[in-house]
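ugh ok fine here u go
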Amino acid sequence: MSPVTPPDVDHEFTAFFKEMEPRLSYALAAAYGVEVGRESTADAMAHAWEHWSKLRGMDNPGGYLYRVGQSRARRYRRSGPLFPVALVGGLPDVEPGLPAALNSLSTAQRTAVVLVYLLGWSEREAADLLGVDRSTIRRHRDRGLSKLRRALEVPTHA
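structure:
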């Protein structure tokens, strides 16, 4: 006979899941690509359910789960690009060189750039989820953006 979970714990976890899962999924997809991000997010959220009694008392459960997702992503690592190449023919939705340029960034730089510039997160939101200081997000974001500009030959304004 399996243990019964009290309804208030189910409700509490469900609310946490609805808030955390999309944010964690975006962050892990930014870091490891869409497929690996999806799989490692599922693993991290399963871990959250299994360890909910410990997790619910943490100051930053999102940061903890991001680290769990990072660990799980290692087993799903695939060779090849993290982001698909833009389709040829017609006008692409993105700069054709952007996927390759994003793939060339470090994991930390790519994650910061995608979360802050693509998804519009604040530095604080990104820092909280990743479990780092705002200054770390800012540094990775700025370095990543600089590398993207060079790779895409975007002029910088003086």
